[in-house]
Every structure is written in structure tokens, then in C-alpha cells.
Amino acid sequence: MKVEGRAHAGIPPPDLVIVLQVSPEVARARRPDADPDVIEARAREILDARWGAGVFVVDASLPREQVLGDVASAVWESL
Prior knowledge:
This protein is α+β, with helices and mostly antiparallel strands. It is built from 4 helices and 2 strands; from the N terminus they run αβααβα. α2 packs across α3.
């Protein structure tokens, strides 16, 4: 464990974190074969989280092109 801790200590924090967030309903619809309770819990966890500075939250329930555009914008703004 000490070796792993030293290795992680040398990794700088990310310049940007992008969170893709969807409602539990959208998450369940996109993963119909997955356990709906697990999918809903995870989606709810992401929706309810308080994201700090440097985190760009994207509404991933929007059309794919819009989501990609929002992510690209976040990346370009962080450069």
C-alpha cells in the first residue's frame, strides 16, 4: 500500500473534470439490460453531487452533437 500511495502522490490533479449527467429515467432507458435500481442510484448520486471548482457538468440527455460540442467547449476553455 505504501508503494501505491507514493505513486499516487506523484500524480498531479487533473486540469479539468467533465461530468456527464443524466436523469435516472434517461439512464434506465439507455441501459435497459442493467439493474434499474443500480442505474437509478448511480444517476441520482451524480445528480446530487456537489461538484467543486474545475468541474464542468454536461447535461448528457441532450442530443449527442450538443453533448460533444459542450465537452469540446469545456476542453478548449480549459487550455
